[in-house]
Amino acid sequence: MDIDITEKQEAFINSTAFETLFGGAAGGGKSYGQLVDALLYALNYPKSKQIIFRRTFTDLEKSLIRVSLEFYPKEISQYNSSKHIWKFKNGSIIDFRLYRQRK
Ligand SMILES: Nc1ncnc2c1ncn2[C@@H]1O[C@H](COP(=O)(O)OP(=O)(O)OP(=O)(O)O)[C@@H](O)[C@H]1O
Ligand SMILES: [Mg+2]
Q: How many angstroms does the Cα of residue 30 sit away from the middle of ligand 2?
């Protein structure tokens, strides 16, 4: 696997804080950084389950789904586009879901 990350993405991934903010311009690499972070967790912890939420499906599609399809390694992971789930050979999953606020 050959993935290069920026200094900012590295700082984000290495953060041990409970909440980490990642600011910056549109296209600055926030989604990619979050996806690398999730990918490393999925590979380091077999059978782990992660869920990444966005408010709308357009937000999921335009950022996370499209970008993850660009670089997640197909040798060890498979995307189910009807369930919006990445499944890894080690049993881990990354699930993209909609966040809905209770009224
Ligand atoms: N480390 C990297 N290596 C290769 N490509 C990258 C890297 N970081 C980001 N990119 C690419 O740059 C583009 C923009 O990155 P990304 O979508 O993560 O930005 P963003 O900060 O989430 O933008 P937005 O504010 O629009 O959501 C994407 O196509 C992504 O694949
Ligand atoms: Mg984004």
A: 5
